[in-house]
Amino acid sequence: MIFALDIGTRSVVGIILKETDGQYQVEDIVIKEHEERAMLDGQIHDVLAVSKVINDIKKTLEERHEPLTRVCVAAAGRSLKTEKGKTTISIKGKPLLTHEDVMYLELAAVQQAQMTLAEKSSNEKSHHYYCVGYSVTRYEIDGEEIGSLIDQQGDEASVEVIATFLPKLVVESLLAALQRAHLEMEALTLEPIAALNVLIPPTMRRLNVALVDIGAGTSDIAITDGGTVIAYGMVPMAGDEITEAISDAYLLDFPLAEQAKRDLHTKETVTITDILGFETEVPREQMIATISEAIDRLADAISKEILRLNNHQSPKAVMLVGGGSLTPELPRRLAQKLHLPENRVAIRGIDAIQKLHIDREEMKHRPELVTPIGIAIAAKQTPIQYVTVEVNGQSIRLFDMKQLTIGDALLAAGIQLHKLYGKPGLACVVTLNGNTITIPGTHGEPPIIMKNGETATFDTPIKNGDRIVVEKGKDGKQATVQLGDLLESLPTKQVTINGQQYTIEPLVLRNGEPASLDAVLCDRDDIVVHMPETMEQLLQATKNDDLLQQLEPFTITLNGKKIKFSEWCATIYRNGMECPRYAPFEDGDDIIVHQQNERTVAQIAESRQLKLHYSLPIIFNGETLTLTKQVVAFYRNGEQLHENDLVQHGDELQFSEQKIEPFIFQDIFQYVQVDIPQGASTTFTLLKNGKPTTFYETLAPGDQLEIVWHKKKQL
After folding, report:
1. Could you tell me where in the chain the CATH 3.10.20 domains are found?
2. Which CATH number fits domain 2-80+167-383: 3.40.920.10, 3.30.420.40, 3.40.50.300, 3.30.1480.10?
3. φ/ψ (deg, to 5) at 322
4. pLDDT (tens digit, 9 = 90+) per residue, 28-77?
5. Helix and strand tally (H, E) in the chain?
6. Which of 34, 181, 397, 419 could anchor a disulfide with 55, C-beta 3.0 to 4.6 Å?
């Protein structure tokens, strides 16, 4: 004998089945509605009220059969919470992704969905939910969708999942209600699983099929594909939506509107009595047309949720169960919205359950009885039990609805998966000739997972009593790199400068200072690698400072003012051709730098357009003479310089200009020696241009001067 209860939002169904050699016989069914709103969306809100209804059903069945102490029950599918989760990790520089890496990503995405769900209820924590299943909706590498992450490489890997959770509170309140009715839970299942197990056996689950249990307040959805259940969902719309539409359209009390809705399924004309007491007969087609908009809303909500759970694709077929599935036109409209043939959406009653016999003919085609009978059969065949394991010394109780793994245990324990992998080592960021280069540290190591002292993985199956120990993986090491590792082979050039051969190598600077290639780089280092390119840079690199200085303009300071003589600098010849200081050079070039000569005071004066002397040409005693006077004097360190004295680059000079005085006759005696002719007296006459003159007579250019000596007188 199997005693099962289907505890719904509006009513509780109690059923007794008898199993004989794998065949099931329905012995009895009792249905009792709640007297008050003791349940809401599958959650027991009033344990006492629900336990009273359970106790009434139990007593009724015990009067007809034997005493009942154990019961099979199901957690309502409408209590299931579905949430999306996504996680992204950097895989830049990481080896090919393994199965273990992908499992970690998937579980981290499930945990993200679990945390999102908990955030929507401020008094919940993520591990207050059981994960009853998840399916991957999308893998991505660098933002592009991909079929599988295994053996892939890139910069970033992402996994997006849709996961289904059951609040632990639902199970705990269910246990409390049973205990108050003096019943022990023999087995537990989920309502969608119960219906699936009897209508869609495992051999059919390779097909993509949706099962929709349409009750009074909600429509529960389960989807199969690839041999398993891939998603669960719930729509907060069901049969009451249609009942309310009839009530509004015809002014009916809710119970009368509910009866009218049921009559639509069996009668061509529905008799109704509105709240004013007027009785009306409404043709079935007319009433359907009146509530067509409500039917369409229900079909639209269910179809959208099916598409969302099924990765935005229509399933191959849809099975409808539950009392709300009898809503007129609903199967046809669902087929239209899912773009399926009409014969791919069908209502299924308990007559579709294999190996089941029922004597009462009127019960065979009632879809609302599929779930209660499914609970009785599924809870016996595939009961959900608790599994207790130990995670890092903490005792964890799991809801055994599928093959449990270590990943499930870590989720239930509230361990943050993203903190289990070691952190990547700090990167080293340097600049090379202005370009930023990031040298990554080593990747963090995966966590160490042990089950009962043996190495395990995230997807290792677990059983009751297992001891699991998880240690965080080691963090990666900080990036270390030598300067030489960052640079490729450095080029060299051979040149000859003024007969001496040089090998030219690039200049490597680290933060402005010369650095060796075996130097270990630090974060934020600024590396400059510069190969001399011009003649000037070449002389700098070869430390020909004297030649480099020769290329600078000849510079002196004159009376406190710095003066540059750009025309006075060295000349560069490259392979015999004159070239400027900014000209390039190549491997094998022969370079000659002709150094600048020293300069004289006269050259300095001439370049500054300064006359050192004032000159006057004359003729004295028939010979041409040039008289000169200094008018500009140059000094260095207080010492007067002569016009042929050499001036060095960088000298500090001073000069002064003197007033120009005219030449007079007596100035010629600085240039000539006058001797008294033999036989002449000591008297003489000065002549200028043949005329007598004096010593102080001013002279003009070309004047003819003479001294005429008088003869001695004869005694």
Report:
1. 480-514+525-597, 611-636+654-711
2. 3.30.420.40
3. 90, 155
4. 888 888 777 666 655 677 778 888 888 999 999 999 988 998 888 887 66
5. 15, 46
6. 181
